[in-house]
Amino acid sequence: MDDFGLPDGYTARNVAVTLKTVARGVAYLLTFIYGANATGLAGLAVQLALYPEEEEEDGEDGEAGEAGAPPPPPPPV
Asked: For residues 22 and 25, what is the distance between their CA atoms, to the nearest angstrom?
């Protein structure tokens, strides 16, 4: 056996190296996705800290539901 703990057989060594390479690639991919997600969430947190959203309170001024209501029909001719 080598220093890396690989098997002595040719086919077994190739399979072990392939699986190790695939596992390492998947780990790098998942790390990148996790890092990109964390970066996006941090950017969103900064954006919300600098420009907070104002909460809309429906129903307190007596005009609840007008923002999403369809326009009134045209008057009859």
From this structure: 5
Q: Which two tokens stand for residue 14?
A: 């190739």
* Most confident option among 4-8, 15-19, 59-63: 15-19
Q: Tell me the C-alpha distance between 43 and 63, whole Å.
A: 35
- Tell me the pTM: 0.52
Q: Which two tokens stand for residue 70?
A: 């369809």
Give Cβ neighbours of residue 4 (< 8 Å, ≥ 6 apart): none
Mean pLDDT, rounded, of the chain: 83
CA distances from 62 to 4, 70, 71, 77 (A): 74, 17, 18, 31
Residue pair 8/1 in contact (Cβ under 8 Å)? The answer is yes
∠ CA 60-62-63, nearest 5°, is: 105
